[in-house]
């Protein structure tokens, strides 16, 4: 019998980054196949290729022995591949039935056949074990679990053979997860194959049949039984580390620079307190959505906080005033560099000087020569390539764009540097360069907070690691205790929670 | 900009094809202006090139042109101001009705202050109440026209007796009509503020990437607020010019002025999405429109036909620019 889905040697390259470097995946009809791996291991890219949302660079994807048309979502859909994404792609202003039949509405001549769609919607929902869901209800008013049900009914309405579920349980309460698993079992009993992606490793043994582990864009273990132990799984996900790319650093001994006291922004961020010394690099680990970016934005005042206070060298920052935070020396290098960090159609110079213009001109006027001098000095110090300050920011690679943002904050003599995924989208080679720059900044006495999803980076580079889960800091790791396994355990709720020391 | 020689214009075209990175609108508009001058020379050589006519072009452009300078700042932030035409009338009426007895200076000051005030209301609505600029200024369009008609009881306020004010509309300095001088000064100041001051940089920064601007420490809301005040100030200046030319404050002036100003800015190459703007482009956009209508008037084309052509030109110019990207 041929496999339902057969992926062989799939490679996907983006400009400058290899997302998939040869992935194999086999899924049988009627099984739940779990896909696990760290953030950035290639899971999302893999399912985008299978669902036709992305075109693979090379490799084959076969469904029941027939090759799928690459890069064409329509072809994958009509072949019976449906995907339920983390951000459910429902139209909130339409009814349940309208969403289920979106794009393949039942018709009577030129008119919509509302009655048929309502009837069939109820039939599909009944098949999923939820006959009570009203097909006329507005999707906007449904609970997340019910929205997910609508997504699954939509997939079923298209005679799905392979259902890909990306983190379906992330938005659900425990009882809802039980209900979801019940639905998944109904589907597989009907012969549907399911690819199930979840960060909650404990779920895998409950729902999965087999599993495949991805790491750095490769399949490192395939078709393991879902009962594989947690320790073995984590070890396979983590693999070998590349510690030698991290520059050697001295232990920090500086003054207290940043003090975060009870800062909270509900429901995204629970009360959080920590402090950072001059020259210290504090890592923040945790899953995507654990509240790490929210924490950085709360510190800078970009998002309003409910309670708490941030101090920089004992001076309190006013709430909700990012401009005053910048003036006080707090700098953020956002994860979304292109959309939040830079003006891509501006020169390198203008991108570097924007926060420092007050000091680079006379009165209200700007001074192009002074700007050029000041920016060039910083750009050279960070070795930004190409070495032409007039070139546009859009001409730079990811690593050099990151350095451009850092050059801005260096010029502004910032004291606290908040880095959100500083090496995301940066080539492996250029990463070492970014680490070197960050280490230099720490050596100059900056207090650095670094959010990262790369465990090796946290362990190999940071003096101390705070692990966040569901909007709260749930563990603090340092020294021998700071291992990739420990971070994952805290992030995944498989270790007892430790309260971070509140000083 | 190249000189008036058509062969140089062709060379310019070829250079543009050769030089990547030179944007179409950087050179296209000066070429259009040159082309219009050439057409004018061919069709109506003697009349067109009379100094009286050429200054007349600038005078006719001065009201919409002055407003377009402020509009460039608004559009640079990704906003728009539809209320400028009504604001022009309301500011004129406020100045003329309440300050007539106090002399020219008082009328002008009243007009300017009123226009700045109206702009501030738009600015507060957009920056702090977070009303979409299109809607906020559409509401102001309706409200300020109403204010103009209410205060004036729908009749113009005659201001013939105010010498200094009417001289603005009729007199020349060094042979140049005063409205033309005012327009050129406003364009010049606008260019300096946009390209040579911190404030101008912040305006473009906010329009180009609002979130990056916040993270870089720029206070976004005061900047957004300020551009509506700025367009209010420019509208106030334009209102004084208009009142001076008519020697009366009229509640029905400025209808469609927002269209003229926005069209000149957009044709000049400023992006409606914000973040990319050019004051020189706005200047040429204003001049282009003024030349076209001057030529059509000299050819005795009826004004409703001119209106239709105006719409066609806007569509065509923006379509050409789209292809340039």
Give a quick rundown of the structure.
The complex is a heterodimer of chains A (503) and B (325). With 503 residues, chain A is an alpha/beta fold.
What is the topology?
The complex is a heterodimer of chains A (503) and B (325).
Chain A: E1 5-14, E2 17-27, E3 32-36, H1 43-50, E4 58-63, E5 66-67, H2 73-79, E6 81-84, H3 96-100, E7 107-108, E8 111-112, H4 114-127, H5 144-157, E9 162-166, H6 174-189, E10 193-197, H7 201-207, E11 210-215, E12 218-225, H8 230-238, E13 256-265, E14 269-277, E15 281-286, H9 292-300, E16 307-312, E17 315-316, H10 322-327, E18 330-333, H11 337-341, H12 348-353, H13 368-381, H14 398-411, E19 416-420, H15 428-443, E20 447-451, H16 455-461, E21 464-469, E22 472-478, H17 484-491
Helix pairs in contact in A: 4-5, 13-14, 14-15
Chain B: H1 6-18, H2 24-48, H3 51-76, H4 84-99, H5 104-127, H6 133-152, E1 157-158, H7 163-170, E2 172-173, E3 176-177, H8 178-196, H9 198-208, H10 210-215, H11 220-246, E4 248-249, H12 257-267, H13 279-298, H14 303-324
Antiparallel strand pairs in B: 1-4, 2-3
Helix pairs in contact in B: 1-2, 2-13, 3-8, 3-11, 3-12, 3-13, 4-5, 4-6, 4-11, 5-6, 5-11, 7-11, 8-9, 9-11, 12-13
Descriptive report:
The complex is a heterodimer of chains A (503) and B (325). By secondary structure, chain A is an alpha/beta fold. Chain A has three domains: 5-238, Rossmann fold, CATH 3.40.50; 244-329 and 415-503, Rossmann fold, CATH 3.40.50.300; 340-413, no CATH class. Chain A has helices at 43-50, 73-79, 96-100, 114-127, 144-157, 174-189, 201-207, 230-238, 292-300, 322-327, 337-341, 348-353, 368-381, 398-411, 428-443, 455-461, 484-491; strands spanning 5-14, 17-27, 32-36, 58-63, 66-67, 81-84, 107-108, 111-112, 162-166, 193-197, 210-215, 218-225, 256-265, 269-277, 281-286, 307-312, 315-316, 330-333, 416-420, 447-451, 464-469, 472-478. In chain A, the strands form five sheets. In chain A, strands 6-9-10-3-11-12 form a six-stranded mixed β-sheet, with helices on both faces. In chain A, strands 18-19-20-15-21-22 form a six-stranded mixed β-sheet, with helices on both faces. In chain A, strands 2-1-4-5 form a four-stranded antiparallel β-sheet, covered by helices on one side. In chain A, helix 4 (114-127) packs across helix 5, helix 13 packs across helix 14 and helix 14 runs parallel beside helix 15 (428-443). In chain A, 47% of the residues are buried. Residues 499-503 of chain A have low confidence and may be disordered. By secondary structure, chain B is an all-alpha fold. Chain B has one domain (61-324): ABC transporter involved in vitamin B12 uptake, BtuC (Orthogonal Bundle). Chain B contains 14 helices and four strands. In chain B, the strands form two sheets. Chain B has a two-stranded antiparallel sheet with strand order 1-4. The two termini of chain B are 21 Å apart. The interface between A and B is medium-sized, with 26 and 20 residues.
